[in-house]
Design a protein that fits this description.
With 162 residues, this protein is an alpha+beta fold. It has a single domain, classed as Aminopeptidase, CATH 3.40.630.30. 31% of the residues lie in helices and 33% in strands. It is built from 4 helices and 7 strands. The protein has a 7-stranded mixed β-sheet, with helices on both faces. Helix 1 packs antiparallel against helix 2. The two termini are 25 Å apart.
């Protein structure tokens, strides 16, 4: 991690930056970006909501370099999902994603979480994403062939937190 990078809550003025980060990563489809922005709008529009937890990571100059969104899985025994994590391409490889993951895991352990799951795509372009999760201590738990589209499996990673 860059020693100067800090995590903070999202603010309304971050929305445009978050949209640009989601677009510039080139990892997300137009539909995925739309859903991510809907969740961001929901959280920003409902202060105090607890369905989704968000955190941004900012550079030393105070500008936003990335964000994550996670939430408890309904009807499960203390299981959580990481829904979104994105880092500006210019800031990738600097440990910001790993910093966000560690911070989330610490938060979830304090909350008594038992497991954390991450769903991602199986297409080739998601290879570095899957490698990032594996390097962060997650293991592939399931793969649903052709889930998102032909040739694009749903890959579910998981980690025990308790």
């Amino acid at each position: 991690m860059q020693a100067e990078a800090t995590l903070r809550p999202l603010r309304a003025e971050d929305r445009g930056t978050l949209r640009r980060i989601l677009e510039q990563t080139l990892a997300f489809s137009t539909a995925e970006i739309r859903v991510a922005l809907e969740l961001i709008d929901y959280a920003l529009g409902k202060p105090g909501q607890t369905d989704y937890r968000f955190a941004g990571i900012e550079r030393p100059d105070g500008s936003l370099a990335g964000y994550m969104c996670y939430g408890e899985i309904p009807l499960s025994d203390r299981c959580w999902d990481l829904y979104w994590i994105a880092v500006n391409p210019a800031d990738q490889g600097k440990g910001l994603g790993r910093t966000m993951i560690r911070s989330m895991e610490e938060d979830l352990r304090r909350r008594g979480a038992r497991k954390l799951f991450i769903e991602t795509g199986g297409k080739t372009s998601y290879g570095s994403t899957r490698a990032f999760y594996e390097a962060s201590g997650y293991r592939e738990m399931a793969r649903l062939p052709d889930f998102f589209a032909p040739g694009d499996d749903k890959v579910i990673f998981g980690k025990d937190l308790a």
